[in-house]
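Batch manifest, entry 17 of 40.
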Amino acid sequence: MNTSTDRRIAVIGLGAMGGAMAATLHKTGWAVTGFDPSEAARAAASAAGIATTASLEDVAGTPYAVLSLPAASIVEATVPQLLAKPGTVAIIDTTTSEPATSKQMADLAEKQGAAFVDAPVSGGRDGAAAGSLSAFVGATDAALQAAEPVLLALTGGKFSHIGGPGSGNVVKLLNNVLAAANLVSVGEALGVAKAYGIDPATAAASISEASGGSKVSANMYPNWVLTGTHDSGFSLGLMARDAALAVDVARQIGENPSLLGAVASQWQDALDALGPRADFTEIARTVAPAITPAGAPGTAAVA
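Output type: structure tokens
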């Protein structure tokens, strides 16, 4: 497998997450070139001091590449183009992708002496900007070793080697569907609290110090739902996709997680009501509209 001390890296996909990761890599001494088909995304990266290109061909053969893409199908189309020229050491795919795709891309890269690791991340745009993401890594030992310098820069060492190619995708999808379930259950619980005349913020704070507490009750609801801001930066469309994909991946191997399936269905209902660009915390508007100033879909926000 290829090795290199060359710190040139391409970041493919300069949205909220990819742009923040590109900035982190730039600040930590990597020579970053960013690619995105969106002129606006490239302009934002350029404003942060990052070199950009409008052509994926320009970054083929760059020693390292980070992918932050919206779907597995785009990963499948991108990786062969990056490998079209010699020189690639490691491709780190932070996309919430599909395990079969990652296995195929890992095989393709290995045949050319390169590494491909699925390393979907958690921590949002703030974690990406701070270099403190968590990553779920699926890779061979050799591929992990090749990709490690980039993983360290993005996570500060907070990555877990789950297993072989594709396993990182599986655990990230399970993480997301569990978060999706928690967003629904906490919302419903706080809705019950409010119906009893209890301040939802007080209930959330109390629960967060007890066995029912979570990041959802301690941070997401107080910061984004109860305030009505709903500005986490992660879309409802992506979370609905991830929840559905987690259930689909389970069913492909004969598992039928009934509770997670019901949760995925609730997210599809919210997607129909609010649209894919809504913030993912707006699920509260469909499961417990009384607790957020933004109100139920189709109603005026509470001043």
